[in-house]
């Protein structure tokens, strides 16, 4: 039913829905796996998850959390829009100056004492 050479990691909504539809029709895990071209373990996982939650939505990934805030992302977008040919180092340097908010240098120490 779905392409044999999947070439991607996650099932889309149609594939997950097909698993549940075949399950509700009483089809075996092996049949569903062969028919959809999806590994048996994946079919079983989605059957179990649907039975527990009643939903076919993927869980959020457990990858590395974002370090950028929405404001940081907006600043990057503005920097790229202002100067489309910009290196990542230039953007990082500008953001660093914004984050640190370095005050203008003080040259009081250069004044001669009376």
UniProtKB/TrEMBL annotation:
Source species: Daphnia galeata
Subcellular location: Nucleus
Gene3D superfamilies listed in its UniProt record: Winged helix-like DNA-binding domain superfamily/Winged helix DNA-binding domain
Entry protein name: Uncharacterized protein
CC per GO annotation: nucleus
């Amino acid at each position: 039913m779905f392409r044999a050479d999947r070439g991607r990691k996650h099932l889309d909504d149609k594939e997950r829905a097909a698993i549940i539809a075949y399950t509700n029709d009483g089809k075996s895990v092996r049949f569903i796996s062969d028919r959809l071209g999806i590994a048996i373990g994946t079919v079983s996982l989605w059957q179990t998850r649907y039975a527990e939650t009643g939903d076919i939505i993927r869980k959020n990934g457990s990858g590395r959390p974002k370090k950028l805030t929405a404001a940081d992302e907006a600043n990057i977008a503005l920097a790229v829009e202002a100067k489309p040919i910009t290196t990542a180092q230039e953007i990082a340097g500008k953001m660093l100056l914004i984050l640190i908010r370095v005050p203008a240098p003080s040259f009081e120490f250069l004044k001669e004492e009376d």
